[in-house]
Design a protein that fits this description.
This protein is mainly alpha-helical. It has helices at residues 2-22, 54-90, 92-106, 110-121, 125-151, 155-162, 167-203, 215-222, 231-258, 260-266.
Length: 267
Amino acid sequence: MSRLGAAIVLLAIVAALFGPAVARFDPAAQQLDQRLDGPSATHWFGLDELGRDIFARVLAGARISLLVGIVVVSISSVVGTLLGSIAGYFGGVVDESISRIIDILLAFPGLLLAIALVAVLGPSLTNVVVALSLIGWVGYARLVRGQVLRAREFEFVQAARALGAATPRILAQHVIPTALPAVTVQATLGMGGAILAEAALSFLGLGVQPPTPSWGTMLNGGRTHLLDAPHLTIFPGLAIAFLVLGFNFLGDGLRDALDPVTRVRAG
């Protein structure tokens, strides 16, 4: 399954990088006389309510989805790793303060909190990234904190501390690297979650604004034509489902590959 996930992700990346450049139609070009036409040899995914080529818009929407996923996961993983490392290594009041913040944020459903933040900040792609990053670091911080609590008792960490190594050096060279495999798996799975969250916010009108192609806005535009033109929702819906599934398959494969217990059993 991990190979299938990697293939889906790779296909999405290629589509995002090169798809819009080689697409036969401009994703913003309108052909009103053919609006809502179904899939054909000319328009593989059909046309939407404004006569725009859905295949070209799906390819362009892949850029938005992957961009949001990469930026959100990058910010969340870096912030979460730093705060989780600090909390787990120092303990005491520092750990208690950061842990309480984590508990407070985890008490709210992530998507509802993101909706509230975007509603306050205003609908835009930038604000979607900000909102998802503000809530996304929590999972990484909790994960890394647990890893660091275990790693700080390792003999080589104790030896580095006894030799007088500076705390930033101990964290950077000895403690944080022990958590990187778990963070890598979490980041891969988090890509799917960020893509799904962006699509949900855009579907609600809080994310990417028209006419910029986004899978979420395409779903929103097609919901009023479920009976007479179902292709408006089928193809962007499938794109979201397959890409999220691909990242989940890839994350599961990485978890099995990086888990020493799984490697021992496989051997």
